[in-house]
Specification:
414 residues; alpha/beta; D-Maltodextrin-Binding Protein, domain 2; 2 domains; seven-stranded mixed β-sheet; SBP; Sugar ABC transporter substrate-binding protein
């Protein structure tokens, strides 16, 4: 996912399906994952499309369910914006997508293009991305940000002992926040082959690197006083509230992607308040992980006009309104870096080094991938609850998490 979870839109989307999915006369239909302010900004984008009028359908986290229902009803949208490369591969192999012109691949760095290439054919084009390896903080509360995992642990321990604002804000009610922690730790172990195999759904969760990552999570999350409001409250705290805990000085840091800036603007602190800054998720041995997410446009079968829209969406000017508003990154090389407020983030995702890894849960197949109350998101929430409990058994919690993930992977393979 590239931003906050997209809740409260499934009912409306499925209602449209059961109502007959009537298409506005002459309009192109685009199903998207965005809601709220992001949805409004995308509608501003497509108003400038020089072709047919574009009707936008918001499906949120349940876009897969919506598209399957629309497919069964014989009323496919022309284009869909998918949040997971795993879905692109699944749809392509099921014959539900139109292949795209190979020249579109040149608009993105090779690692990005490879994520949307299935059996040698390009099936998707990136329209939005997220830098997901960032901690956000107020300089007056953290004058010397940590530069290593050991330094982060020391900061959390010392801040928690001081008895002031909690060192960490964690929106654990959104399971994807917890998986992002795990993914950044896995990215620090320099084993891209293991990461790729986990993304493909292989049951290799008992690897030592995975166990070490879970042990590291257990250690930092279980520090007494580490989490704003306490661990049980964190399981009821959504992502946006965790950001507000930092801007309102109830917590020192919050870990999440570049889209935190959009939440800060949406819940603007009083005039004259400090602007938050960032430091990178610390790695090990000098290695700095870079985990990214992204939303990709695909053309559903039998929609020749959908190709034109995707070509336009991946041009240099389509997303100018969203870029000007802020809270938007893209790996699209045709958009000048100078247009972005967050130029450093753009440069890092557009020219990824060896540490570049795409969001793990967004690549996983079938039921293993995360969404509310299921898959890897739910397993990480159970793990968070277990290691922060008063009578916690960290070793047992790691064993349970590894076993649950391997079981889910085998189930997804079937």
């Amino acid at each position: 996912m590239t931003g906050p979870t997209r809740r409260a839109v499934l009912a409306a989307g499925l209602a449209a399906v059961t109502a007959g999915c009537a298409r506005s006369s002459g309009a192109l239909e685009v199903a998207v994952v965005w809601s709220g302010s992001e949805l409004g900004l995308f509608r501003d984008v497509v108003r400038s499309y020089p072709g047919r009028r574009v009707e936008v359908i918001s499906a949120g986290d349940e876009i897969d369910a919506l598209l399957r229902a629309r497919d069964r009803a014989g009323a496919r949208p022309d284009v869909a914006i998918l949040p997971r490369p795993g879905l692109v591969a699944e749809y392509a192999r099921a014959g539900r997508l139109e292949p795209l012109d190979a020249t579109l691949a040149g608009r993105f760095a090779t690692p990005w293009t490879e994520l949307l290439t299935v059996d040698g054919q390009l099936y998707g084009a990136w329209v939005k991305a997220a830098h997901k390896s960032l901690f956000w903080y107020l300089p007056s509360m953290l004058p010397n940000p940590p530069r290593s995992w050991t330094g982060l642990l020391q900061m959390v321990e010392s801040t928690a002992r001081a008895g002031g604002p909690a060192p960490l804000a964690i929106g654990a009610a959104d399971g994807w926040v917890l998986t992002d922690w795990l993914e950044n730790l896995l990215a620090g172990f320099e084993d891209a082959d293991l990461y790729r195999s986990l993304a493909a759904g292989e049951p290799r969760w008992d690897a030592w690197q995975v166990r070490n990552a879970f042990n590291d999570l257990a250690r930092i999350w279980s520090i007494p006083g580490a989490v704003a409001g306490g661990a049980q409250r964190a399981l009821l705290t959504q992502f946006e509230e965790s950001v507000i805990q930092v801007t309102s000085r109830r917590a020192v840091t919050v870990f999440e992607g570049d889209f935190v800036a959009g939440t800060v603007r949406r819940f603007q602190p009083p005039e004259g308040a400090e602007d938050p800054r960032t430091f990178r998720f610390p790695g090990f041995g000098g290695r700095q992980p870079l985990v990214v997410g992204g939303d990709a446009a695909v053309v559903l079968r039998d929609s020749p006009d959908g190709r034109d829209l995707v070509d336009w969406l991946t041009g240099p000017d389509a997303f100018a309104p969203w870029i000007a508003n802020g809270g938007y990154l893209s790996p699209n090389l045709s958009i000048p870096v100078q247009r972005y407020p967050q130029r450093t983030f753009v440069a890092e995702i557009r020219n990824p080094g060896d540490g570049f890894l795409f969001d793990l849960s967004d690549q996983m197949p079938g039921s293993l991938t995360g969404f509310d109350g299921q898959g890897v998101w739910k397993i990480l929430q159970d793990f968070f609850a277990a290691v922060t409990a008063r009578d916690a058994d960290p070793r047992g919690a790691v064993d349970d998490a590894v076993h649950a993930l391997n079981t889910a992977a085998r189930r997804a393979q079937k």
